[in-house]
Structures are given as structure tokens and as C-alpha cells.
What we know:
Elements: H1 7-16, H2 20-32, E1 40-43, E2 46-49, H3 54-67
Antiparallel strand pairs: 1-2
Amino acid sequence: SRVGLDARTFGACLDGGKHADLVRQDTDKGNSLGVRSTPTVFVNNAMLAGLADYSVYKRLIEQALQQKP
Length: 69
């Protein structure tokens, strides 16, 4: 409520389960890929678990762009 969130609406949305199947599918996919924490980011086949420095993301993205056919 301190940030202006309508707690009743949020609670109803959360408890309604409207997107529960989608969340479950995403969770299952992440588990199958070895994701054990958030954030986890994939750049090509490289998995970065937890927080990484900007330079790490930059290097991996630049490497991926060099491999692009």
C-alpha cells in the first residue's frame, strides 16, 4: 500500500490462479535447464546465475554477435 498498490486487487489476482499454469510451465522449463536462482540469464548457451557485472553480459553478447551467421 505504501507504493500505491491496491492490496485487495493484488491479493485477488494472486489467489485467483489465472496464470498459475504458465508460471508452472516456466518453472518446469527453468528447472530442466538447471536454473536454481534468480536472476538467471542465458546468452546463447552460457548461463549466468545470480548477479553479474555489466562487462560479463557485454562480453557474452559481443561473442554471440560474432558467431552470428
